[in-house]
From TrEMBL:
Pfam family, one: HbpS-like
Protein name, as recorded: Heme-binding protein
Domain of life of the source: Bacteria
Species of origin: Oceanimonas smirnovii
SUPFAM superfamilies: GlcG-like
Amino acid sequence: MSEPLYRAVRAAGRLADTLENEPGPPVCLAVVDDGGTLVYLHRMAGAPARLVAIATAKAYTAVRMGQPTQSFRERLERERLTLADFQDTGLTSLPGGWPLSLTGNLWAGLGISGRTLAEDERLCRRWLDSLNTDSQGETGGVAS
């Protein structure tokens, strides 16, 4: 596992630990590599099983489309497209997925599910921000 991918996984574990002690429904967090393959999944106690597939699809979509799932959703609406137009059954338009890139190279996708769509989006951004904070000075930060 590459160092940036490993940092994304470590940050996911820290966020999961933090969320365990905060109010709110349990969530699932997923990390996929640059090809969309699942490399990490955390399902909090009490999180419905359906969240596994949703969090994974958010991470997959973010890396495959190279944009946050909220932006992808807006594109679908703006261009009057459907998910079926992309011929990829793994895609979702649900907010809460973010791609990770470093020096212009896409290397991972993050996905989180279990709360409202707006909260999933906020939590995923929080996860991304923690990666940027962790990597300052090491690699110049993580872009999304």
